[in-house]
Amino acid sequence: MRITCVHQGFELYGSDRSFVESVRVLRAAYPQAEIDVVLPRRGPIVAPLTGLATRILIDKLWVLRRRDLPRLIGFGFLTLPLAVARAARRIARSDVTYVNTSVVADYLLAARFCPGRTLLHVHEIPEGATLAVLKALVRWSGTDVIFNSRATQAAFGLPAEMRARVVYNGIAGPGAAEPKTYDGLRPLRLLMLGRISRIKGQEVLVEAVRRLPVAIRERLEIRIVGNAYEDPDRERALAEAIAAAGLSEVVTLRPFVDDPSDLYRWADVVVVPSRLPESLGRVAIEAMSYGRPPIVSRIGGLTEIVVPNRTGWVVEPDDAVGLSACLERIVLDPQGWTGYPAAARARYDAVFRESVASEGLLAMVRSRLDATMHRGRAAVATTPVEP
User: Fold this and answer.
1) Shortest CA distance to 159 belongs to which of 178, 140, 132, 133?
2) Count of the separate structural domains present in the chain
3) Cα–Cα distance for residue pair 206/203, rounded to 1 Å
4) Rounded CA gap, 287 and 271, in Å?
5) 3-class SS of residue 158
6) Is the pTM of this model over 0.85?
7) What are phi and psi of 313, to 5 degrees?
8) Is 369 found in the same domain as 280?
9) In this predicted model, what pLDDT tens digit does every residue of 87-113 receive, in sequence order?
10) Which domain covers residue 345, as residue numbers?
11) Are residues 13 and 132 in the same domain?
């Protein structure tokens, strides 16, 4: 058996770690299978995949990223036929091809010419023209589709005849939640983890903290962890905004880390102040697995993670005033959220634990494999026998 797994990234942020966990689930279910992983380039993701994949292949994927669209629309279109042909050969040689995210255009186009062999896992809610293009691409591909949230499924609005299923990302967490230690006598440890980008809302957090009374600011210790890959100007702008707000003693910028587990253990609360729709929100789920209640924006799939005022807090997106007020309540009333850490962990165990989510992924994979084997048997049965 050969399973090909295709991913558009090379780092180790949320969608990258979700891909690694999907490959881990496939390896556990099919220990004898040949699993080929196709990536656009080498990066931090290679290390955790090395023990799971039979082969890691570096290929020039045709990925529809917004920043690359001008190049792709121009000279890049000349490379598309070759990319689709290369993808079609890989799909044809595989019993099932698992494509992680809808932006891998060459594999979705190729799936149309190799029907019944491809499974698409959608982890994004694009906007505007990009959403229109991706919706059309997914529909044309004819693949089976896994959506990582109801919000993602609603954004794509596929026709009823396409086989689709919502499966929340299964996330491996610690064996048990970390104990809550914040009692108001020391600074509240607030963590923001993720790529520095316009979507994630680092600037919203900085503005929210700037608005706090000085006496509240002094009771905060904040770490913003991540990088703006291929966009150093954005990192510099964030550092300058922190300094200009007079928050250099409160907010620390730290670079991306492969393993954020120590950061979650350090934190009391994790903040996910996304400005645009998240398809789900891995950081919020990881935080709950450690018993760290998250503050999330009321947008996209984040609303499917947190039970407001029980497992965390929900604020309006792009609302520094509302986030500031939420932070002030958390600092001033630690007893008011004493039960949140245990409730957050309980929700993780019930809905987002890796073992809970893996069955949904495997059900879709088994369906594709069964269909492929059925076609193979049918082809053998109808092949004329030479006299």
Assistant:
1) 140
2) 2
3) 5
4) 9
5) coil
6) yes
7) -130, 150
8) no
9) 999 999 999 999 999 999 999 999 999
10) 188-350
11) yes
